[in-house]
Every structure is written in C-alpha cells, then in structure tokens.
Amino acid sequence: MEKLLHSAAEHWLTSESDEVDVEDIYWHNLIIWKDAKSNVAQIAKSLVDICDHTPLQAEQCALIIQNTGKYSVKAGSFKFLYPRAVALIERGLHATIDA
After folding, report:
1. pTM passes above 0.90
2. At what angle do helices 40-51 and 55-68 cross, to 10 degrees?
C-alpha cells in the first residue's frame, strides 16, 4: 500500500498537465510586519516603488503597519506576490505571503 501511495505522489509531483496550478487559484496576501529597523518613510517609498501604491495609499499602509504591527498591502496569486515580497525583503522590510 505504501508503495502505491508513494508512486501516486511521485506521479502527481512529476506529471505535467494543462490544469491551473493550485498556487494560482487561491488569492494570497502580501503582509508587511513592523520591525525595529523600518520607519514609515521607508515602508511608504517601498510600497510606491514595488507594489505600485499611490503615495497617499502607501503612507496610510505604512502608518497602519507602525500602529498595528502588520498589514496586508497587496492581494493576488502567489506568482504575482512572490517577486514583490522578495523585493521588499531586499529593502530590509519583514514581508510574508499568507495562504
């Protein structure tokens, strides 16, 4: 039985299909977390540059992050959010993608 399950799992992981990837079906949230290093100006500039926020929207998000500790700044598929999360992390921000 274990061999059968292993074989089925291996097939699932290696088979190619035309179906949509599970990561693209569900919407995820890009969350920025408050940390000791980042400030409102740095967060706002990063949101304008990376997440295509307007300056007002970016400032509001940054203030929410500073006051509440975290905020979902963008929603979309994992493939859409992943490069933005990496870019935010490279700027020194604490960013995650939730499921």
Report:
1. no
2. 130
Identity (one letter) of the amino acid at 15? S
Q: Are strands 70-76 and 94-98 parallel, antiparallel or unpaired?
A: unpaired
Contact between 51 and 30 under an 8 Å Cβ cutoff? The reply is yes
| C-beta separation of 1 from 49 below 8 A | no
For tokens 């569900």, what's the residue? 26
**Ramachandran region of residue 28, left (φ > 0), alpha (ψ -120 to 50) or beta?**
beta
Using 50, 70 and 90 to split pLDDT, how confident is the model at 22?
low
| Residue bearing the bigger pLDDT, 12 or 37 | 37
Torsional sign, CA 12, 15, 18, 21:
positive
How many CA atoms lie less than 13 Å away from 58 in the CB half-sphere? 17
